[in-house]
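To whoever is on call:

I kicked off a structure prediction for a single chain this morning and the downstream step that reads the tokens threw a length-mismatch warning. I double-checked the sequence; it's 313 residues and nothing unusual in it as far as I can see. Pasting both halves so you can look.
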Amino acid sequence: MPNQPISGNDLARFAGPQTFMRLPEAETPEGLDVGFIGIPMDIGTSWRSGTRMGPKQVREQSAMIRPYNIQTGAAPFDALQCADLGDVAINTFSLSDSLRIITETYDKHLKHNFIPMTLGGDHSLTLPILRSIAKKHGPVALVHVDAHADVNDEMFGERETHGTVFRRAYEENLITPSKVYQIGLRGTGYTSEDFTEAEGWGFNTVLAKDLWHKSLTPLAKTIKDAIGDQPCYITYDIDSLDPAYAPGTGTPEIGGLTTPQAMELIRGINGLNIVGCDLVEVSPPYDPSGNTALTGANLMFELLSILPGVPYR
């Protein structure tokens, strides 16, 4: 029988282990189908910090989530062996060293055949994960949900930050450009190229304004059909949501996605060959209510529910 989250009927939700959905802890991914990994880091941010506290609060808020998705029929814990692998021991004083540590940690983990689901942490962590993922799977398709394209060349002279991730991933051949979908982009830039340059590389960009008042189910089908069965990585920046839904983030932008749209998008790409995913940029100090982390935890559950092998209706 696969691991099950501790039921709120057996132990009050405010008690028990501080793991994702109160799952068992594991030291290695051996025997797992899915492992939750925290990366408590915010030294790659350029505006508001605090995402180092993200993994802890997302785990805390995940205690509210029950194991069966009534709306979709998904029961991921009946189909997949899941556990919490704890946090990556980053160097909190060095971003470059932390990125090295993340890649080395994931290289070690990915010797086992499992899907890593990462709790962030700022978005700079996605680059070292992709470096490791690409060693195992080759260049991957990418579903990137975010207010920002994160394709800057440099930020304050640094080439590896939360705003340069996908330019580096493109340059390093970690992703397949024609199968990169950046969804929810909006806000202001320094030049018009901030929003168009990556399209020249082959990226598919979808501005938030083109999604206002619309269902994202048709977009999800387009993405699913285009990516096919290629290994796919999903990176979900919580600032893709409008700050009315997710104020606790480092770089909020008005006019973003709604939570129903977020759920439509994730549910609509069920069937992709997902080999990893992350949820980043939850910054608890900017949302004392915990609602942003609660939303992030639920989106992770939605992502878990569409992994290969989970029955879905």
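Update from on-call: the warning came from a stale cache, not from the record. Cleared it. Sanity check on the structure: The longest strand covers residues 175-185.
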